[in-house]
Design goal:
Number of helices: 4
Shape: elongated
Order of helices and strands: HHEEHEHEEEE
CATH architecture of the largest domain: 2-Layer Sandwich
Strand content: 15-25%
Helix content: 25-40%
Structural class: alpha/beta
Number of strands: 7
Radius of gyration: 19 Å
Largest sheet: 4 strands, mixed
Length: 183
């Protein structure tokens, strides 16, 4: 292979990777369709394996997330439609997903959709690190109502429409809402 041919092959591979990222940016979360899996931080990486296969790495919001099989199907469909074969989808559990991986756009889209985004940050990094194990949950401020903005809210149930959300109610506008719990 000549240097020119090698350069063309690398440029084509890079363009295909960028195209895969662009295509996967449009894959919505099946439970919250206003945000993409990339915005939520579920889409961790898109890379080429040594054999040239496209590898898509996804991490569930929690290890028992029932939406992961649907997410994998949606990723496969998007790659098939874009003719980005061959590919493999890898589900990786470590490091564990954290709400810190959500983009600012995702948080705003959640709020506009009626779901209070997670408050604060979990202090996690993209690489695993030692953490103190706490057997008593730390007190977090109640989330603000995504509809009226009031901080005067109460938790009704630890679990909302999905296990990663809690059910809250605003004491001012009286509307119930989901709160995406910080992890």
């Amino acid at each position: 292979m000549t240097t020119s041919t090698a350069s063309t092959a690398i440029a084509t591979a890079d363009a295909a990777l960028q195209r895969a990222w662009d295509v996967l940016e449009t894959v919505p979360d099946p439970e919250i369709p206003v945000v993409s899996i990339r915005e939520l931080g579920i889409l961790r990486d898109v890379r080429r394996d040594v054999d040239g296969t496209l590898e898509v790495v996804i991490t569930p919001t929690y290890s028992g997330c029932p939406a992961m099989s649907q997410i994998a199907e949606d990723v496969a469909h998007a790659l098939d439609v874009a003719q980005l074969q061959p590919y493999r989808i890898a589900t990786v559990l470590a490091p564990a997903w954290t709400t810190d991986w959500m983009t600012a756009d995702a948080r705003e889209k959640l709020r506009a959709y009626g779901i209070a985004p997670p408050t604060g940050n979990c202090g996690s990094a993209s690489a695993p690190q030692e953490k103190v194990v706490r057997f008593v949950p730390r007190a977090l401020p109640a989330p603000s109502c995504p509809r009226c903005g009031s901080a005067h809210t109460e938790r009704l149930a630890q679990f909302g429409s999905t296990a990663c959300k809690a059910l809250y109610r605003c004491l001012d506008c009286r509307e119930p809402f989901d709160y995406f719990k910080p992890y």
